Each structure stands twice: as structure tokens, then as C-alpha cells.
């Protein structure tokens, strides 16, 4: 199939242009605006329409190839791959690799976990509550040993998901996997406080407030605990994003 009518808005220099271009092209493909078999415009045409450099186009094309959304045919060009519009929801591994994507994934988690935690407060059983407190104890142990406690953090969120009584919450958190807890390696590149005892103690206190709200079967307090917990993480990530852009 020859080029479909293709247009892309000029990108603004707000964050990573390659990420913005990748997201724009990905959305056009997944929305069906670029059907399977469509030949993409040349790199030069995309450069001119988006107002970006050749290297930005090259990075975006490489990212979409890695996601198997587009394929190259030697000597012919780049085409939208077959079957992409019927792909199930997924978050690619490379989407956990930037602060900007971590922020958007945290926003998704906020929307999901507000109701997940409220349902946990409403539906939790004694055995599930015991598991939540055990996860908090495990987190504290790792914290006191000077370790990052990332696995223990994730285990707590899984325990809350299980207590909700809705297995799809558990599947969602498991799907996100270790990426559900923003990578401290990523944060540590720009902020040396990410693994400091004070930071981990703050997380521990936030976890305890959430657990107590679930213990008390107080749905609104559970929502507020999540709002504060993930809200603080979002605040930290946004501050880091501004710091990176300023460099």
C-alpha cells in the first residue's frame, strides 16, 4: 500500500522530541489512521512535517520497530506491520526507561489504585490484612538493612490488590511488574536521595497509613492514603523531569 494521507503536527521542544514523535506515530498506527501495509513517508518528509532532526526520526523509527509496529523492506521503505490495530493493551519495557513515561504510568496507577485500595478497605479479609502488614514489616526490615526494598514495595501493592477482591486488579499490578515501582536506578541518575533512609522512611510511613485505613475499613481514608503516596512520587518525578530539561 502506498503512503496514506499523512500529516503530523510540529512538535514542541518541551521534553524528549524522540519520545513525542514515537508517541504520535504510535497513536496514528493504533488508531487505524495508518492501516497495516501503509508505507511511511521518507525520513526527510517526517523531519519537515514534525520540525525535528534526522536523529529524532531515526530514534522514533527504531522504537516503533522494537515494538513491532513497523517493518523495513530493504530497498522499498518502512511499512506499518500487519495486525497492529488488533494488538492487546501492553506497556513496552522501554516505556519504563524515561522519567516522562514513568510519570504517565504513575498517573495510570493513581487512577487504578485509588479505587483498588477503597475496595480493599471494603472487602479485605483477616488473612489478607495479615499479609498486608507482613509486607510492611518486610519492607521495614529491608529498609533497616540499608537495601532498596523495591520487591517488598511491589509485594505490598499486590497484597492490596488481592484484598480488593477483584482479580483484575491483581492481574494489572502483576502485568506492570517491577515497573509498577518506579525504577530507583532511573531516579538515582538525577537525585542521590532516592535510596536514602529518609526517603525510604517516608515510603514506609505512607504504606502504614494505607494499611491502617484498610484495617479500619475506611474507604475514603484508603483513597487519600494512595493519593498522598503516589502523589508524592509524581511530585518527585515531575521535579526530576524539570531538572533534566534544565540541564
Number of domains: 2
CA(first)-CA(last) distance: 43 Å
Number of strands: 2
Largest sheet: 2 strands, antiparallel
Strand content: under 5%
Q: What labels would you give this structure?
A:
single chain; 247 residues; mainly alpha; Arc Repressor Mutant, subunit A; Four Helix Bundle (Hemerythrin (Met), subunit A); 2 domains; two-stranded antiparallel sheet; 10 helices; 2 strands; elongated; disordered N terminus; transcription regulation; transcription; GntR family transcriptional regulator; WH_DNA-bd_sf
Short summary:
This protein has two domains: 70 residues, Orthogonal Bundle (Arc Repressor Mutant, subunit A), CATH 1.10.10; 154 residues, GntR ligand-binding domain-like (Four Helix Bundle (Hemerythrin (Met), subunit A), Up-down Bundle), CATH 1.20.120. Helix content is 63%, strand content 3%.
What does this structure look like?
With 247 residues, the protein is mainly α. It folds into 2 domains: 17-86, Winged helix-like DNA-binding domain superfamily/Winged helix DNA-binding domain (Arc Repressor Mutant, subunit A); 93-246, Four Helix Bundle (Hemerythrin (Met), subunit A). The protein has helices spanning 17-30, 43-50, 54-66, 99-123, 126-144, 150-163, 167-176, 184-188, 197-215, 219-246, and strands at residues 70-73, 77-80. It has a two-stranded antiparallel sheet with strand order 1-2. Helix 4 (99-123) crosses helix 6 and helix 6 packs antiparallel against helix 7 (167-176). The longest helix is centred in the last third of the chain and has 28 residues, at 219-246.
Amino acid at each position: 500500500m502506498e503512503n496514506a494521507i499523512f500529516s503530523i503536527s510540529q512538535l514542541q521542544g518541551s521534553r524528549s522530541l524522540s519520545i513525542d514523535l514515537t508517541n504520535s506515530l504510535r497513536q496514528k498506527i493504533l488508531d487505524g489512521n495508518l492501516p497495516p501495509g501503509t508505507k511511511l513517508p521518507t525520513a526527510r518528509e517526517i523531519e519537515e512535517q514534525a520540525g525535528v532532526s534526522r536523529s529524532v526520526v531515526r530514534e522514533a523509527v527504531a522504537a516503533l520497530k522494537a515494538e513491532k509496529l513497523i517493518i523495513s523492506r530493504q530497498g522499498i521503505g518502512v511499512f506499518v506491520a500487519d495486525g497492529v490495530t488488533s494488538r492487546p493493551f501492553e506497556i513496552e519495557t522501554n516505556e519504563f526507561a524515561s522519567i516522562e513515561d514513568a510519570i504517565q504510568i504513575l498517573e495510570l496507577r493513581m487512577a487504578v489504585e485509588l479505587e483498588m485500595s477503597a475496595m480493599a478497605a471494603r472487602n479485605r479479609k483477616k488473612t489478607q490484612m495479615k499479609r498486608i502488614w507482613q509486607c510492611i514489616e518486610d519492607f521495614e526490615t529491608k529498609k533497616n538493612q540499608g537495601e532498596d526494598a523495591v520487591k517488598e514495595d511491589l509485594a505490598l501493592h499486590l497484597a492490596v490488590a488481592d484484598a480488593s477482591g477483584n482479580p483484575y486488579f491483581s492481574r494489572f499490578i502483576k502485568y506492570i511488574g517491577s515497573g509498577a515501582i518506579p525504577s530507583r536506578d532511573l531516579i538515582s541518575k538525577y537525585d542521590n536521595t532516592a535510596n536514602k533512609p529518609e526517603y525510604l522512611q517516608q515510603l514506609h510511613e505512607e504504606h502504614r497509613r494505607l494499611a491502617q485505613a484498610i484495617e479500619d475499613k475506611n474507604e475514603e481514608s484508603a483513597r487519600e492514603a494512595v493519593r498522598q503516596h503516589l502523589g508524592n512520587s509524581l511530585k518527585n518525578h515531575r521535579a526530576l523531569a524539570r531538572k533534566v530539561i534544565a540541564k
